[in-house]
Amino acid sequence: MSPAIHVTTAAWDTIRREVAAGPSHLETGGILLGHDFGDLLQVTVAGDPGRNSQRSRDRFLRDSDHAAQLAARAWEADRAQWLGEWHTHPATPPAPSSIDLASYARHLQDPDLSFDRFLSVIIGLDDQRQALVAAWIITRDVVTPVPIGLGDPQ
Ligand SMILES: [Zn+2]
To answer: pLDDT for 111-150, tens place per residue?
Structure first.
């Protein structure tokens, strides 16, 4: 069974801030860190893109050094692990592109990263910059859409 995804208010605030700050025609994104409880992935930290990220209309390449620093800090703070990444698309509905899927496949195959599954959160932005958020769990074999909850439970 696929896990549900929960993004804490703190992590979601970071994403909202980065989305609001960026020029609308460029993608932005960052890594997602948190805890894997098996049937629930809890995202507690969302990374910003970092100064050396490459952003264009149809792809986002994160700043790897910056991501590694964020990951080390989160692990130090509460053993949060690198779960996946978020990025924007300049269109709705959001769905992983072939470029995205190729990059996730590289992560899953990288023995240094030891991912069993990779969380992809994509924020599709329409003409009014309204966000539509969706999530997928990527494994070596399948790409599965999963439910995502944002912010603290009411
Ligand atoms: Zn994409």
So the answer is: 988 899 999 999 998 887 788 999 999 999 999 999 999 9
Give 154 Cα–ligand 1 centroid separation in angstroms: 31
Nearest CA to 29 among 63, 68, 72?
A: 63
Structure tokens at 43: 């995202």
**H or E element at residue 124:** strand 118-125
Centre of ligand 1 from the C-alpha of residue 35, in Å: 23
CA of 72 to the centre of ligand 1 (A): 25
Identify the CATH number of the domain defined by range 4-150: 3.40.140.10
Q: Kindly give the distance from the C-alpha atom of residue 44 to the centroid of ligand 1, in angstroms, as a whole number.
A: 22
Residue ranges per structural domain of the chain: 4-150
Helix H or strand E segment including 101: helix 98-109
